[in-house]
């Protein structure tokens, strides 16, 4: 039995497939990422999010990642160039490593900007480091005068698996009582789209529509990876992908995410579809390629260091599968405490807002004063800080340090915090008697978060 | 097949691009008539308040002209009383930082306090023509607080104050500065009022969409900003030392007058609650406003009665303000605890307004960055 499992695994790992889908994926990914960087730059967000703030919220364990100030532009520039190199398949391995590092570094500068899809990009580019995405239709082929027809099947499958995890886990997260039985938060979000043409006045306001959207969203996320896997349902599934993502793009400001997902899911299609895409690109490039000598075609791409790469990827995917369930170690309501919430494909699940102000007290004299958050945080940072406990704690420490350095003595920091979740009335969020300056960040449950006065059942 | 897909993606993308365009015009009706709400705000609240202020400032200008021509106790008293009238009316205008008022930073030219005495004295001694009252660097040397200083604080008794405008070495410059300040307040106000009546009203009442620049969203943000900053922090929080280790009893509104800081705060509070409830400026009628919008949204959501909760909290805070001394400066000196308790009640409404009401309205605070995936 064990032997045959190993045998099956070996057979699977040796299976090869056409290299074209991965090449198309590489081009789509590179072009979209380069465009994302340009878009970010164009909107002035580099300055606004990474240079202007004088304080940045850090991921636990990544406090050492610092904003580079004006050099952030250089970081973005390199990231964009790396993405372009990826698209061209020019020095691919180096380019994708550079992209992964620069992009991830940018994301680690400030967790205020955390989005699931940025995390997805980091994770995906990490996986792509291990894949021969330049095996075909790349500049590297010309440089090395070699191109490959076939690549190991598992390389494409690993991208499919990652996409499958993203969708399926996002679907699992929707299996909760707020989403399914209260149609929350869509019941708050959709009616506010009253200004959409055609559907704003009518459809968006209907109770049944809020429920229909909640349930179909959940079903879509849970089933789409499987519908994309099977040939018979694939085209139908892709049409669904396009409709779903375009619709979410119309409703919400979610930036590049819909386009990235639409392009990414093309990987599920057969090589024949990708051949046509390549043929189209070639037609466009035709005038420029007259004098280029075609590289020698080698039938199968083979990894020189497969024995190292495969275990790394295997461990990576095991972590990806398990990590989103870490919330089970915390007994309090996940949406309320957000312990184990991030990096778990929980997308669009909550309408959460808060107001948190801080009291700086002198433990000896009892004297105190309140901080005006706008003195230290941007409006965006203040908004995000106000309802996320790890932000609140980190900021409390920043304030404590700041006022201590200013000469204040016996500094204590207390939070006056109110948070509203999924349409419920705001309630007190942080224990106002706990000196947050004494509390340390850790993976342990945060005892100073007041209990949620309601119950949300499900994942 | 793939061509069709690409074509349809492309078409949809264009549709998206068009529909997400910022078109803040066009009436929408989903069961709540936002245009009627905007019209109520414009016609029954904002424009009448501006008209009243313009009238008050005309009286102030006339009184000032008489005073400058013949400074004596009678003309001084007349300027003072029309200053107070206009200052009370101002409390109904300050929150509408929109249109021309926003463009000119109107409120900053009218009511930044504490006023900067050094700067005022420098302006006076350098003489008119050498300073630009519209410049942001002069925001704390103009408007109601600067006039407060010139009418009540420039010397320690009425006789000495009159002396400033009759016998002192630079009495002409003093008169000119006072005169220039009041003329500037009048001309600014008329500029904004005229813009409302001649063209902005139409733009305003058509801005019903849910975008960062639409009238509804801007007014929601203006209202919250004013309640939190103009009312809560400036009138109560900062002077009572909520944001500092010690209180500053010289940072109250109308500090030099010594007698009206409570009156002004109460007017401001009434302005806020009236606006929330859609009460006309002349109190003759009620029209659509936040109260009704919250009630309407609650028919979809079936949550807590925010309208009631907010009005109750307003009432509690107002009752608290009533218990304070007419002169907040004195209140802070003698019993600051009462001032702090009042602040706490005002603050409780901030939570309801900035968290619960904003969630219900789904109006984003304008932070210039709008990418999110909803988490």
3D architecture notes:
The complex is a heterodimer of chains A (about 450) and B (about 375). By secondary structure, chain A is α+β, with helices and mostly antiparallel strands. Chain A has a domain at about 15-285. Helices cover about 50% and strands about 10% of the residues of chain A. Chain A is built from 18 helices and seven strands. In chain A, helix 8 runs antiparallel to helix 11. Chain A is globular, with a radius of gyration of 25 Å. The two termini of chain A are about 35 Å apart. Chain B has one domain (about 30-360): A middle domain of Talin 1. Chain B has 14 helices and no strands. Residues about 15-30 of chain B have low confidence and may be disordered. In chain B, about 45% of the residues are buried. Chain B is globular and about 70 Å long. Chain B has about 375 residues and is mostly helical. In chain B, about 65% of the residues lie in helices and about 0% in strands. The chains are: A alpha+beta (about 450), B mainly alpha (about 375). The interface between A and B is large, with 72 and 57 residues.
Brief characterization of the structure:
Chain A has 459 residues and is of the alpha+beta class.
What would you call the shape of chain B? Answer: globular
Order of helices and strands of chain A: HEHHHHHHEHHHHHHHEHHEEHHEE
Overall helicity of chain B: 55-70%
Helix and strand run of chain B: HHHHHHHHHHHHHH
Q: Tally the structural domains of chain B.
A: 1
Helix and strand layout, with pairings?
The complex is a heterodimer of chains A (459) and B (375).
Chain A: H1 2-14, E1 16-18, H2 20-42, H3 45-51, H4 72-88, H5 92-109, H6 116-129, H7 139-144, E2 146-152, H8 153-173, H9 177-181, H10 186-189, H11 207-229, H12 231-251, H13 257-264, H14 271-285, E3 296-300, H15 306-322, H16 334-337, E4 352-362, E5 368-370, H17 379-385, H18 389-405, E6 411-421, E7 427-428
Parallel strand pairs in A: 2-3
Antiparallel strand pairs in A: 1-2, 4-5, 4-6, 6-7
Chain B: H1 2-19, H2 34-69, H3 73-90, H4 100-103, H5 106-110, H6 117-126, H7 143-153, H8 158-166, H9 171-206, H10 215-237, H11 261-277, H12 290-301, H13 306-322, H14 328-361
């Amino acid at each position: 039995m064990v032997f045959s499992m190993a045998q099956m695994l070996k057979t699977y790992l040796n299976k090869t497939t056409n290299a074209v889908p991965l090449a198309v994926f590489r081009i789509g990914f590179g072009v979209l990422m380069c465009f994302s960087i340009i878009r970010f730059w164009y909107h002035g967000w580099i300055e606004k999010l990474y240079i202007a703030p004088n304080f940045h919220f850090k991921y636990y364990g990544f406090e050492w990642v610092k904003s580079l100030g004006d050099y952030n532009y250089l970081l973005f520039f390199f990231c964009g160039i790396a993405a372009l190199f990826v698209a061209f398949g020019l020095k691919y391995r180096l380019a994708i490593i550079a992209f992964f590092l620069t992009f991830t570094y940018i994301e680690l500068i400030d967790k205020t900007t955390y989005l699931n899809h940025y995390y997805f990009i980091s994770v995906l580019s990490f996986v792509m480091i291990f894949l021969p995405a330049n095996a075909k239709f790349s500049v590297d082929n010309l440089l090395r005068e070699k191109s490959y027809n076939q690549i190991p099947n598992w390389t494409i499958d690993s991208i499919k698996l990652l996409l499958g995890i993203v969708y399926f886990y996002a679907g699992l997260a929707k299996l909760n009582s707020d989403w399914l039985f209260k149609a929350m938060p869509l019941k708050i979000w959709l009616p506010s789209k009253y200004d959409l043409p055609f559907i704003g006045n009518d459809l968006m306001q209907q109770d049944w529509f809020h429920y229909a959207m909640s349930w179909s969203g959940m079903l879509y996320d849970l089933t789409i990876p499987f519908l994309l896997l099977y040939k018979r349902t694939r085209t139908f599934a892709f049409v669904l992908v396009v409709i779903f993502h375009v619709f979410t793009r119309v409703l919400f400001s979610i930036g590049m995410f819909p386009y990235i997902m639409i392009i990414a899911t093309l990987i599920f299609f057969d090589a024949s579809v990708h051949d046509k895409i390549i043929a189209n690109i070639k037609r466009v490039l035709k005038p420029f390629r007259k004098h280029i000598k075609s590289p020698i075609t080698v039938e199968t791409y083979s990894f020189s260091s497969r024995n190292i790469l495969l275990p790394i990827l295997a461990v990576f995917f095991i972590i990806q599968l398990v990590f989103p369930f870490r919330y089970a170690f915390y007994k309090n309501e996940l949406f309320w405490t957000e312990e184990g919430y991030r990096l778990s494909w929980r997308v669009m699940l909550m309408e959460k807002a808060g107001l948190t102000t801080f009291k700086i007290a002198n433990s000896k004299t009892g004297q105190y004063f309140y901080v005006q958050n706008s003195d230290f945080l941007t409006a965006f940072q203040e908004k995000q800080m106000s309802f996320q406990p790890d932000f609140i704690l980190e900021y409390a420490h920043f304030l404590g340090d700041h006022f201590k350095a200013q000469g204040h003595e016996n500094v204590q920091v207390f939070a006056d915090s109110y948070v509203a979740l999924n349409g419920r009335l705001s309630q007190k969020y942080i224990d106002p008697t706990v000196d947050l300056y004494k509390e340390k960040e850790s993976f342990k449950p945060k005892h100073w978060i007041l209990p949620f006065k309601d119950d949300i059942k499900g994942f | 097949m793939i061509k069709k897909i690409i074509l349809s993606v492309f078409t949809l993308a264009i549709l998206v691009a068009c529909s997400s365009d910022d078109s803040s015009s066009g009436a929408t009706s989903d069961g709540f008539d936002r245009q009627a709400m905007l019209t109520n705000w414009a016609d029954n609240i904002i424009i009448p308040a501006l008209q009243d202020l313009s009238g008050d400032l005309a009286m102030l200008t006339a009184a000032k002209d008489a005073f400058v021509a013949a400074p004596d106790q009678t003309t001084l008293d007349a300027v003072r009383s029309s200053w107070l009238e206009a200052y009370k009316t101002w409390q109904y205008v300050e929150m509408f930082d929109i249109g021309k008022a926003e463009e000119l930073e109107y409120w900053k030219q009218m009511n930044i306090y504490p006023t900067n005495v050094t700067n005022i004295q420098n302006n006076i001694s350098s003489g008119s023509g050498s300073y630009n009252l519209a410049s942001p660097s002069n925001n704390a040397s103009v408007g109601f607080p600067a006039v407060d200083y010139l009418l009540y604080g420039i010397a320690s008794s009425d006789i000495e104050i009159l002396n400033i405008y009759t016998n002192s070495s630079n009495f002409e410059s003093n008169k000119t500065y006072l005169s220039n300040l009041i003329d500037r307040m009048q001309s600014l106000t008329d500029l904004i009022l005229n813009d409302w009546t001649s063209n902005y009203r139409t733009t305003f009442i058509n801005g019903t969409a849910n975008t960062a620049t639409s009238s509804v969203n801007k007014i929601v943000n203006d209202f919250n900003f004013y309640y939190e900053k103009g009312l809560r922090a400036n009138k109560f929080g900062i002077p009572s030392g909520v944001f500092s280790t010690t209180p500053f009893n010289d940072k109250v509104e109308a500090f030099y007058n010594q007698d009206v800081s409570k009156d002004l705060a109460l007017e401001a509070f009434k302005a806020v609650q009236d606006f929330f409830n859609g009460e006309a400026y002349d109190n003759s009628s009620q029209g659509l406003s936040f109260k009704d919008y919250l009630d309407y949204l609650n028919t979809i959501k079936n949550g807590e009665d925010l309208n009631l909760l907010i009005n109750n909290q307003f009432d509690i805070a107002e009752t608290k303000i009533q218990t304070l001394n007419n002169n907040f400066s004195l209140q802070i000196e003698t019993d600051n605890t009462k001032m702090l308790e009042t602040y706490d009640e005002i603050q409780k409404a901030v939570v309801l307004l900035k968290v619960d009401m904003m969630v219900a309205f789904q109006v984003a605070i304008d932070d210039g960055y709008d990418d999110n995936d909803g988490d």
